[in-house]
Amino acid sequence: MKIALIQMNSNKSRDENVNVACNYIDQAATEKPDLVVLPEFFNNLYFFQYRDYSYIDWAEREDGYTISRIKDRAKIHNLFIIATIYEEQAPGVYYDTAMVIDPQGSIVGKYRKTHPAAVRSLEKIYFRFGSKYPVFKIKDWKVGIVICYDTYFPESIRSVVLNGTELVVIPFASPYKEDNMRSHTVVTRAYENGVYVAACNKVGPEEDWVFGGGSLIVSPFGKVLAEAGMSDDKIITAVIERDLIYEARRNMPMLRDRRPDLYTAITAPTENLPKDEVY
Fold it and tell me: How many structural domains comprise the chain?
């Protein structure tokens, strides 16, 4: 399967951002990918850097302007698209939602971010967390999704992989950092799970924040197959092969050697953990 990631910058104009995304999809389609991935919140300025509840009005339904436009591109180019937006599921109920759109322009599944960020950003005051790690059929591949901050919880990607995933897609809106730990983490997640990982980030300045780009596609052996720079819009592509997953998991059988019977502390209520430990 061939995948394409669209690394892009966004501004305050939703319509302009969506037009840019659609133009990039058109460009990516010339390479004939099966799947195109857009960054987290590609259609809007990353307003979660501010505490201003008026931004809630920027949330959209699945049949709103943004996803309707992306559905059209999927149909025109006969490909799958993963597009992540600030979704209004119901009045007062909002999610960070990655929508899987098929070549007929239908939404065939959704993943909702399970770990809204609250380190530098204020995502937790704008939307609630999802609670599932679904697996989606794209062509003949099993594809899972986690979003941005989810990546730093290894249990997230491991859960997606245990559910059968062969490719993990990660839409990001991650700020620039000189050490580029995001890329190192993505490589590690691919290697420790014997799975392909495709991480698609925003790039460039968006008011007070600068996003770090560095989108990349990584093999199950942790080899970087394609990588974008950290300052400019870019489309990257790679062909992924299922045989490599089989080979990686035979060579490094971490999934075989797991000991879930020993990991009860991971799912224990926080109140039940030792009080003199740091957690």
Answer: 1
DSSP reduced 3-state for 216: strand
Q: What is the pLDDT of residue 279?
A: 58
Chain centre distance of CA 148: 6
Contact 199, 212 (CB under 8 A): no
Q: Is 126 helix (H, G, I), strand (E, B) or coil?
A: coil
Place of tokens 């679904």: 134
* Domain contains 260: yes
- pTM (2 decimals)? 0.96
Residue 277 lies in a domain: no
Strands 196-200 and 167-171: parallel
Residue 162: φ, ψ to 5°: -65, -25
Contact 226, 237 (CB under 8 A): yes
E-strand ranges in 156-247 read 167-171, 196-200, 203-206, 209-212, 216-218, 224-227, 234-239
pLDDT in tens, 99-108: 999 999 999 9
Asked whether residue 182 is assigned to any structural domain, the reply reads yes
Q: What pLDDT, on a 0 to 100 scale, did the predictor assign at position 278?
A: 60
Burial of 214 (C-beta count, 10 Å sphere; 0-12/13-18/19+): buried
Domain that holds residue 246: 2-272
**Residue 23, H or E segment:** helix 14-29
**Quick one: residue 103, left, alpha or beta (phi over 0 = left, psi -120 to 50 = alpha)?**
alpha
pLDDT above 80 (res 178)? no
Pairing of strands 141-145, 167-171: parallel
